[in-house]
C-alpha cells in the first residue's frame, strides 16, 4: 500500500469538500457586522459590563452568523482557563483504545492541555452528540475515532477554528487530517505468512462490514489469497459483531464445514481472544494470526500483526497541536506501518 | 470485613466535615442577596437582554458568593443542552478502568446523559485540575477515582450542587459517597488460599504505599499470615510502582534471597502480568494468586481474586443518579465483594 511508505504529513488526496483551517472570523469581523466598535465586542465576549442589552444582542447575532469563536490561547492567558482537547473514542473497554488515549494524553499534557474523553459505543448518533457536546464545552481541538461515516456535522465547528483530526478510521464526506494503521497491508502480510507455512484453506473473521478497518483487512486477506492464486470459499469469510458468541459460532462453522480451514486470520483483538479460546478446545491444532497485539499474547504464543496504538494516538495528537499552533496546509492522511510478530500460533503447519 | 456484608447504600460512618447535598441556594436566594427581582436573576442566568450592566454585576456577585448554580434539569428542558457527568480516571490504559468506565457510561446513557472522562495519571494535582475543569464545563455530577488524599478542593462544588461519588479508592478529608471493592478481605482470602495449599514463605508485591488499595491489600496479606501464626520476613514484602522493571526486580529478589518464597501474592493486575512473565522463566514452579482478573488469565491458568470492575462503575453511577434525582441522605460507603477464581497457579504446592 503506497500510503505506508509516505512520510507522515505529506498531503493526501482530497476526498471531499475541502475545509480550510485558519480562516476564523476575527473580533474585527464581528464588530464590522454588528456595526459597533472592537471594545464593545470584547466586552460582550468576555461578559464585561458596559454594554446595553440591544447592543449585546446585535453582537451575539454577528458572532453566531459568522461562527466567531474567541481566540482561546489568548483567553487562557487572560482568564486562566485551562486549554483542553477532546477525544471521541469508540469503546472505553477495548485495550487498544486505552493505549491510544494514554498516548494522546501524554502529548496533551506536554502542551499544558487537558484531555477530555468520551465514547460513542460504536453509535454514529452518539458520536455526533458527544463531539458537539465537547465543542460546546469549548475544547480547543478534537480527535475523533469515528463510528459514523458522515462527518459533515463537524464542518461548522472546523470552520469556526476547532482543529480536528481523525484517527484509526477515516472521516466520512469531509476532508480532514487522518491517522490510520495500514490495515490492508497488515492483513495481507499476516495471511501471506500463513500461506508461506503451507496453509491453503484459511478463514477470516472480522468486525462489522460498515467499519472501515474491517473492510480493509478483509481486502488484505483476499489480496494475499489472490497473490498466490488461491480461491476463497464463501464459508471461510465471516464479518459481524465481535461479541464472543458470534465469533465462536463463526469459528466452529469454519472448523466443521465441508472444507474445514486449517488456519484463521482474526480481524482484531476482540475477535482474537475468542478464537484463541475456541482453538484451545479443538483436538487438532489450527494456525492463527490475529490483527492487534494482546497483553500476555507472548506467553500464549499468539502470532499477531501489531499496530502501534500509542504511535497512532501520538501522531494524531501531534498533528492536532500543529493545527492549533496555526500550521495551515491541506488535510494530511498518514498510514502507520504494522508489524508481524511470530510467536508460534501462526507457524503451526496444516493438519 | 464488616463493610462487605452491608447491603449497598446503608449510611457509612461520617469521617470528615459533613457535606450536605440538596441545600443548594436558589434563584430566590440570589435575588434577595442582590436586592433585585426573580425575573432579573433569571435574565442574567440565561443571558437574556434587559438588564443593566450594574445590575448584572450585582447579580453575578450574589451568584458567586452564594455558590449558586442553575437547576440543570430545568435548563436541559429549556435550552436543549445535553446533561453530562464527568469521570476522573487514574490510568486510561489500565483495562481495569476500561471496564469500570464502560459500566458508568452505560448507566449514564440509560439516563440520557453523556459521560466525559479524563485521567489524572496518578497525579493529585492533575486530578484536581481535571475535576475542577469538568465542573467548570458544567457537568451535573462527578465520579472520581482519586489519585490524591485531600479532596477539600471539591467542597465548594459539592455545596453548589455537583453530586460527587468516589470509586475504587476513598475520598480524603471529606465525607462523600464511596464505592470500593473489599481489598482487605480479597487479599486475605487469596493469601489464605496459598497457605491452605501448604505455603509458608509467601511474598507480597503491591503498588505504592500512598495508594489506599495497596495498603488495604497488604493488610489483608499480613492478617492472613497472622491468622495462621506465620511470621512475615521483611524481604517478602515489596511496595512500589507497577513498572515492569520494578516488579521484576522485586520478584527476582524474593526468589533468590536467603528465605526464598514458594508463592507470591500480586497486588493488582499490572503487577500480575509482570510476575507471570518472571515466573514463566523460573526452573522451579512458584505459586501465584493475583488481585484483579486479567483477560486470557483462564488460558494461562492464573488464579485470581477478581473484582467486579463493571459493578464498581455501575454502583457508583447509580448512586450518582440517585443524588442527581434529589435523594438526600448521609454519604454512603459501599464495599463490594471480591471472588476467588482458582485456575491452577494458586494451587501449585510448595517446591
Short synopsis of the structure:
With 351 residues, chain A is of the alpha/beta class. Chain A has 14 helices and twelve strands.
Account of the protein in words:
Two copies of one chain form a homodimer. By secondary structure, the first copy, chain A, is of the alpha/beta class. Chain A has helices at residues 2-5, 27-34, 38-45, 53-66, 72-79, 95-110, 124-136, 155-159, 183-196, 212-227, 244-256, 269-280, 297-300, 309-324, and strands at 84-89, 114-119, 141-144, 163-167, 177-181, 202-206, 237-239, 263-266, 287-291, 303-306, 333-336, 339-341. Chain A has 14 helices and twelve strands. In chain A, α6 links the parallel β1 (84-89) and β2. The longest helix of chain A is centred in the N-terminal third of the chain and has 16 residues, at 95-110. The first copy, chain A, starts with a helix and ends in a 10-residue tail after the last strand. At the A-B interface, α4, α6, β2, α7 and α12 of A face α4, α6, β2, α7 and α12 of B. Chains A, B: GO terms for molecular function: DNA-binding transcription factor activity; transcription cis-regulatory region binding.
Residue share in helix of chain A: 40-55%
- Secondary-structure-based class of chain A equals alpha/beta
The gross shape of chain A turns out to be: elongated
Mean pLDDT, all residues of chain A: 88
Instruction: Work out the number of β strands of chain A.
Output: 12
Low-confidence stretches of chain A: 1-22, 71-80
Amino acid at each position: 500500500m503506497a500510503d505506508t511508505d509516505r512520510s507522515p504529513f505529506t498531503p493526501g488526496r482530497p476526498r471531499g469538500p475541502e475545509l480550510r483551517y485558519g480562516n476564523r472570523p476575527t473580533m474585527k469581523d464581528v464588530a464590522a457586522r454588528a456595526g459597533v466598535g472592537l471594545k464593545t465586542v470584547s466586552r460582550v465576549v468576555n461578559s464585561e459590563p458596559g454594554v446595553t442589552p440591544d447592543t449585546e444582542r446585535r453582537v451575539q447575532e454577528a458572532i453566531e452568523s459568522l461562527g466567531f469563536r474567541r481566540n482561546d490561547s489568548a483567553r487562557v492567558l487572560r482568564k486562566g482557563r485551562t486549554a483542553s482537547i477532546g477525544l471521541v473514542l469508540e469503546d472505553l473497554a477495548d485495550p487498544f483504545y486505552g493505549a491510544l488515549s494514554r498516548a494522546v494524553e501524554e502529548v496533551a499534557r506536554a502542551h499544558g492541555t487537558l484531555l477530555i474523553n468520551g465514547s460513542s459505543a460504536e453509535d454514529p448518533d452518539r458520536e455526533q452528540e458527544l463531539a458537539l457536546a465537547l465543542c460546546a464545552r469549548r475544547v480547543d481541538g478534537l480527535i475523533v475515532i469515528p463510528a459514523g461515516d458522515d462527518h459533515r456535522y463537524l464542518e461548522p465547528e472546523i470552520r469556526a477554528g476547532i482543529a480536528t483530526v481523525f484517527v484509526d478510521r477515516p472521516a466520512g464526506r469531509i476532508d480532514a487530517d487522518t491517522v490510520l494503521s495500514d490495515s490492508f497491508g497488515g492483513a495481507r502480510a499476516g495471511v501471506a505468512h500463513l500461506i508461506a507455512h503451507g496453509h491453503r484453506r484459511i478463514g477470516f473473521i472480522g468486525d462489522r462490514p460498515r467499519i472501515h478497518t474491517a473492510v480493509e483487512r478483509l481486502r488484505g486477506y483476499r489480496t494475499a489469497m489472490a497473490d498466490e492464486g488461491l480461491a476463497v470459499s464463501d464459508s471461510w469469510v465471516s464479518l459481524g459483531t465481535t461479541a464472543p458468541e458470534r465469533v465462536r459460532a463463526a469459528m466452529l462453522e469454519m472448523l466443521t464445514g465441508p472444507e474445514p480451514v486449517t488456519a484463521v486470520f482474526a480481524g482484531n483483538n476482540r475477535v482474537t481472544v475468542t478464537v484463541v479460546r475456541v482453538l484451545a478446545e479443538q483436538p487438532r491444532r489450527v494456525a492463527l494470526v490475529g490483527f492487534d497485539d494482546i497483553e500476555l499474547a507472548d506467553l500464549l504464543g499468539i502470532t499477531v500483526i501489531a499496530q502501534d496504538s500509542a504511535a497512532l494516538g501520538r501522531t494524531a495528537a501531534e498533528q492536532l497541536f500543529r493545527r492549533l499552533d496555526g500550521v495551515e496546509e491541506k488535510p494530511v492522511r498518514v498510514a502507520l506501518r504494522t508489524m508481524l510478530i511470530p510467536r508460534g500460533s501462526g507457524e503451526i503447519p496444516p493438519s
